[in-house]
Amino acid sequence: MSRVRLALVTALVGITALAACSSGSDVPDPASGTKDGNKPGAAPAPKPITKTLTQAQLTQALPGDGEMLPGWSLHGDKDVTDGPYCNGSDNDSTPPGWVRGGDSSYEYNGSTNNMAHVAICLFDSAEHAHTAYTGWKGTETDKEQAPKPSVGDESSLVVNPGASEDTVYGYVRSGRANIRVRIEGGTGDDPSGAQATMAATLKRLQQLQDNKAATVTAPDEQVTATN
Q1: pLDDT score recorded for residue 186
Q2: Cα 119 to Cα 48: distance, rounded to the nearest angstrom
């Protein structure tokens, strides 16, 4: 065999070996779900809320009877939220970029002695939603807890804000949407209940954004969190 042909054969063998090594390497496939230490095959992070959801969709995203935490039932009807309700507690103006919102209230075991509340506010941009989220969350950093696992793009649990007792506030921002959960008494002293409600409400928004029915419930999220 001539030296030229021998060199060509050797080069081809080398290329084949390199290709085999590459295909069997441990480098993760970006589409496999392995990123930032997540387990291989893990579900991708939920997409943030980017669409201008309708009022009907915001209403559907609010948990109804049988979709809230055990013991809690819908108190009255789900409401349309006005702009100032989506601002910080000390600000009565409509926040910049506000589009629309909805809220609902719940009573515990048929009594209004303990109440829970869920509100959704939609903005025209993630930046405006972030500003409103910061105003909602307040500045009592000593009472904040980071939800585990985290919820949305930004989230926080605030236990007993102000002078309250047995009350938990939960705040979430996902893209252009903010969610606020307030649970007073009942299961209010357990932050996991507020977190389950936050996560369920966000996932219901994400289902509706994908043109699916809102089916996720707070009990679903409680079960997931304890497994």
Answers
A1: 65
A2: 17
